[in-house]
């Protein structure tokens, strides 16, 4: 063993041997040394987008995954940790526009580099199962399942509204529309209706919700809640306001029925107007009749009409001059167009009850529409000038101003109103869902081609299964003016599978969420070119532990769950949910520094470019640029990001201090689910710990080598106290680490080992064999406890010190066992009270009897001092806890 710790020597050597021996390859049904099948464990990180290089968030995510994988492997599990690439998507196209490199080349180059980085981190990845979304052998199965879904009616075609950039002649994704304009051209974006494909996730809404609420015990509560809200089940009443509004062709609009969905049918007597979405047929008719309405609608749908867009807009509207009939009172109610009404929810129309709905209240105040209170809660006084939260209370009120419904509770009134609607054949109780079918068509190049052929005679025809995959040409370079597939004759031109006529391929590609909906199954059925998934999928899945960012709490996870259920219903797999446990790792944060430049923009500085200015308590209050000493602003701490220039390049850290230091720092600094604050001194501290570990082992190598592993501690009599203490600490810390490994709290696993190293360094053991056995035992336990976090250094020392000869390679060495006998302390400390007040402590042998304890307590100097000469009346002993001397 070398005297000095050189991380690069150690890590290169370890990685070389691991690679040569292919140590991370796992096979289904692997057996242990006793010939028993090992239990399987599937631990997987969300697959990365190959953006170019790893960032700290990746490092954290994969290290958590790796620690788990290595520890469970030692504990006898057959553990799968795979990796792949979310290789389709827009950034590759944007890079192509900028640098004129085909997205394929850019993507493959990035993958090669990032893979190298992952290996330099020492991740226990089974690369034989690597998948890549842009590999035809992967995406052919997207196409294959899509065709199956079409067959079953789970996939269907309908027109969709898209953002159209009239200058670039291209469809824009929502995030490419900035303040209503195209991100590249700056042109005002228009809405266009074009056909696209949808997946019927709504058919699974009920089951998805049920499982969210009742089966995902291993998921964080907040993620379950987010999924629940996204699915959005709402119980209410759907009914019609009748009307006599005709369109230009004198057709009665929607057969004279304007349906609304309401969760508060009890407030029906408080309706003072109705509001429809700008896209509603009544709004369209009003626009035809009135230029002002037309102008309002044009403005209202600009930019976006998604829920997120609406949430940020002021509530605005315009009266249409058109009226509908109140089903109970028969009154004429005016219809308004409101920008807060969504066409895609319920029926795109609402009965407005400003008295009890906050949005309607704001709207009514703004446009001076009547507000009527129809629910009373304990006689509280109601003001139609200012909204109060109790106006919306559905649980505790009694109806007022509601004619025949007066005096009813809300739920009684809802039942009555629903009953009325049924009798009049105007409507009924109904469950409405917020979730929409999943539109998967993207008018972009870099994605899975949708396997459809357009024939002039037959229309859209599915590509026959045997003609799959429809391969995406990889040499095209998008230039920003639409999908380059539209100009690629060799791709476009084909024959109709049904009639043989000249036909044209679909150029839309699939949403990349399709790729990520089942890639984790492909790892388990890797390299099977005959089937999408096989029996190996049922072996590994459902995944035991999924690890990824909270930003995927809704869409990715929900789509993957839906996709799994759809595959199950096609008989392709035998489980209901893909992910048993989910861990969302916290963000990595760093300080942010900035300055306003002359042009009024903000310039951000990397933490390495500045010196902090501290107040007397050591808090950062400002900063100076190292370059010229000028003062800049300190903006606090925030997520590491390119835009704030506060990222730390993990590669630089790995190159300078080694992967083990980087891994130790990210595991030690915070529990996995919490935010992690970057700290240069924390990194140095982690590195120092590893050097101390190394040098302790170096200094004591002779003793460690001479110690025995199978020493029988139970028969050792008259053990030296220092040895007993060391064993007590070692086994107590092991016990704690076991507990923390199980609950994925790796930071305290590390601190336990820091403590153990302190103890080892501080302990003075007597000379002799038994002491050597004890040191050897502690070091062997410490190396194994630490190994999952810092695999290189521990593996190396393990080999150097000859532990390999006894336990085998560290990767598969048995996890150490707690010696419960060592945990029995031979002394205990009892709290000493005098007249019930805490006055000190006494230390007594573990097996001391009552007389001994009492005598020790009486003799304590505090007793005499606090009794002030009074005699002792009695001594109360609570075994194991305290002694109270009463005088
Ligand atoms: C009258 C009413 C009175 C309402 C009241 C609420 C409170 P959730 O719970 O999310 O399902 N609504 C219905 N369709 C809408 C649409 N397309 N766009 C915007 N809002 C719409 O919300 C249901 C409530 O949202 C419905 O109940 C309706 O307003 C409104 F004191 O009807 B309510
Ligand atoms: Zn045809």
TrEMBL record:
Motif range ('HIGH' region): 48-58
Gene giving rise to this polypeptide: leuS
GO function terms (MF aspect): aminoacyl-tRNA deacylase activity; ATP binding; leucine-tRNA ligase activity
Name the UniProt record assigns to this protein: Leucine--tRNA ligase
Keyword presence, Lipid biosynthesis: no
Source organism: Oligella ureolytica
Annotated signal sequence range: none
One protein family per Pfam: tRNA-synt_1
Subcellular location: Cytoplasm
Lineage: Bacteria, Pseudomonadati, Pseudomonadota, Betaproteobacteria, Burkholderiales
Domain (Aminoacyl-tRNA synthetase class Ia) ranges: 640-678
Superkingdom as given in the UniProt entry: Bacteria
Domain Methionyl/Valyl/Leucyl/Isoleucyl-tRNA synthetase anticodon-binding residue range list: 727-851
